[in-house]
Amino acid sequence: MSKRNLGEKIKLTSYDDMFGADEATSSPVDLKLEGQIVDVPLEELHTFENHPFRVVDDESMEEMVDSIKEYGVLVPAIARPRAEGGYELISGHRRHHASKIAGKDTMPVIIRDCDNDEATVIMVDANIQREDILISEKAKAYRMKYDAMKHQGAAGGNSLKEISEQAGDSMKTIQRLICVADLDENLLKLLDAKKLGIRQGVDLSFLEKEKQEVVYKIIIDLGVSLSWEDSTRIKEAGKKGYLNEDYMRDILTHDKPKVRKVVFNQKKLDDYFEPNMSSEEFEELIVRLLDEWKQKGEG
Q1: All structural domains of the chain with their residue ranges
Q2: Domain ParB-like N-terminal: where (predicted)?
């Protein structure tokens, strides 16, 4: 049995068979292809507009390339016809990239005739459970799905609830991520690198893009981190209209109390304290003795 026949045996014949979808409304142009699996030339498949997920040449991609070389693409991608010709990938961007590396000319694709909102929801749902997603990718994906669902007529609260139930993140987390999707790309990189907290990111998302760029510049110039207190003050100043670069620098360079660190010589302490005392007992005794000493000095 050829490798192609092996792939044919495990492939399903339509989108409805695979996903149990309802009968879709088809365009006259691709009526015969709607819901069917078709081998499409790779050059006719185009990236989804504003696709938020990376396609990375990592170890996982190498494994996918090896699998495609041996067995072909076993799980079809999903795409929809483009008005300008060819097809827009809805899901399967990594398989498409791996197929190119593997030297393939075509890949199996399920053709769907769907509008922008439906395509966006399918695209996000197909990728959101991946383990290697960056915070910025998840934020942009949630934002795209949320906007699509609202455009379809779902109320804001219901959209958040539905996204939460499907993705497994809390409504509060999703709400925050939707907010940080508006951040400047450089701030999103800090978020991905865990050099900026999500709550701080939410605060900064209320600023104009130009002000966000200034915040990023100051953070990099000074090599400082942004506390939640800092971001709250910056957000409030932005709301009231008196936020400028000097004010931001004042916030981010405020003097922080230095922590006094005291180190004792263990051998010297052994002459005065029991060797088996716990750290808590030792600290309590030291504080008590210092209190007594202070009281005598004041007497």
Answers
A1: 3-114, 132-181, 183-252
A2: 38-128
